[in-house]
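User: Hey, my collaborator sent me this sequence without any context and asked if I could get a structure. I don't really work with proteins. Can you help?
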Amino acid sequence: MNTDSQKMSKPSNDNASNSDNDEIDLMALLLALLRGWKIILFFILLGLVIGILYSRYVNPTYRSDALVQIDEKSSGLPALGENISDLLGTENSKAQTEAELIRSRMILEPVVDKLHLRIKLADLEVSAIDKIVSDRNHTQINSPEGVSLKTTEGQVQISEFNVSQGYLNQPFTLSREGAGFVLTNGFDDFKGKLNEPQKFSGVDGQIHITVNDLPTDNHTIRITKQSLQTTTDDINKSLSVVEKGKQTGIIELSMTGANQQQTSMILKDIILSYIGQNQSRGSEETTKTLKFMETQIPLLKKKLEDAEGVFNEFRKKYGTIDVSKEAELLLTENSNIDVQLNELKLKKADLTTYYTEEHPLVIQIDEQLKVLNDRKQTIDNTIAGLPELQREFLKLSQDTEINREIYLTLLKNYQQLQIAKAGQLGFARIIDLPISTYKAIAPKKLLIIVLGSLLGAMLGAMLVLIKNMLRNVVKDPERLEAKTGVPVVATVPRSPLLTRLHQNKKAPNRLLAYVDNNSLSYEAIKSLRTNLMFGMPVQGRAGQRAKVILITGESPGVGKSFISSNLTEVFAQLDKKVLIIDADMRLGELHKMFSMSQDNGLGDYLSQDTTHLIKDNALVSKVVADQEVNNLANFIHPTGIDNIDFMPRGQHPRNPASLLANGSFDHLVTELKLHYDYIIIDSPPILAASDAMILSQYADKVLVVARYDKSIEGQVIYAINQMNKANIKVDGIILNDVQQGLLSKYSYHYSYAYGNNN
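Assistant: No problem. I've predicted the 3D structure and written it out in structure-token form, which is a compact way to encode the shape of the chain:
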């Protein structure tokens, strides 16, 4: 392609670069992950194994639930009249408040004490491996009789374990010793008998314990007496108390644990404890009022008896006194006022047991008392105007009547309250008690295994990406040119078809011309040929027409043999006679590309006695020259491809570098130039051996192959620097195995390569 066509292709590709950056990056990441599939697979399997082991290690978790309804407080008094209801008052209980009350120590402590929940047992003989192998381990069972735990060598049964404050939350070890047991905390050893209450005195206080059963000797059990706070905190961690919906008054209680039966038992006892406390709270006010009345009734009865006695004595002395109608009305009103005053005083006395004098209800009663006292004072002043005998009669009659009314009212209320207390119910009722479903809610084994695999895949992918970022491999030809100062003369894309064929290790290596001759890879090789033809000198160093091209790499596995063999084939297409030499006498495998043997090659030629050849060519006789030609024919083999001959690596000599430097190879190249248009030398890697530096002395062009996304950038730079230090000029870099579509900047190279093939 001419220069104009090159210019035309470049802007279009630059535009593609600007528009496809995101896609390009994603593709690069995807391919990096694909290359690291072994690492990712390893971590997936690791996550899978960990997930399986974890699901077997962890005990199943069960759940029990129950429902409780919170109603408005029912006093059981509506049928007895409004007076008593007013006396007791009403109160609304909110579900949220009750939910918090259920979690309190007041409710939980009776359950903890009843079921001995503060005692914790653990089998120290059970290891992590045992838990995995058995798929689950035994859990302790708490009951009103004590605490028990099954082991592989017997059962642990503890009916009592109480310690002083100093021993709370401290672990003890318990083991059997004959017919007794040994209890130790690491400092003190306490020995006792089975099935007998034991009392020990230690440094930190007293220990009371009753051991009913233990496993066989030397089987160690850990026992701990937790504090009440620690135990209630543990219960609350597994206890959920929430209102089911808004303003429904329905409380849902749920509890989780490792033992279904145990969990249901604890939750049931918590509910029963709450209901008991609820009923007690429901009658608390009535009880307080009854106690107050019980103290007042005898006093009022005595006061009534005294008033009746005085009044009777007055009537015996003076007989019946005629009182005016107005005075009787005043007397009646005054009596009613006194009754009201006494009721208000009783109510105030009851209220002051709960509230202060500044409470609005107390202030309201004080105001009512003031109004009644003012009216009573007015009536008393009116009665004071009556004759003295009438006033005395009215006073005594009034006192008797008032005391009788007060006493009878209080007695009536007292009897009604007793009936009310007997009929009072709590404002909470049980809807559903917990039941045992024996259906584990955790662990969800399938979910754990899937999550473990996913986490493993994520970890593996992260590791692959981090490793890819830290490798600093060759990816950018422009960067490589800038770092090395050597131009990238060709970028050879990967051939997908050839890659698939190479996946079958038993399949023979084949040239692009016979496998994928329409690919960009093949066109890139042709473009390289064109660049070398126009960039090569017309004549070689000695004036011969042959041109020697050295193909090498910084390290093994970069594809230099692939480049060498295919470059040889495209030169042969031009009806040029080409010789390709496998100069890697250590590990060369170029013979596989042509399906030939490695025997009788370069190593064999250089190892033979050639002292008769080490002289000036002008002095070599024609006979010697003919012998040399015949000798070379034994080491150069036709490939079956037109215009291509091949010299394999031959035997593996002891010191290949010494053979290359002894002058025989120089004579060989001189002789070969007489018979071939192009000689392509496949050299060992630069960093692997010094052979490449020796061979470069006989080459017209030195090309270094680097593999995309595999060759380390620093190694390529170092290899070229080593060549430069040896006064060897590297003429170009070939970037091999470039993956198509990853970097838009490569599209220019592809277009350039394709366009320059004529």
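In plain terms: Confidence is low (pLDDT under 50) at residues 1-24, 74-93, 612-624, 742-758. You can pass these tokens on to your collaborator as they are.
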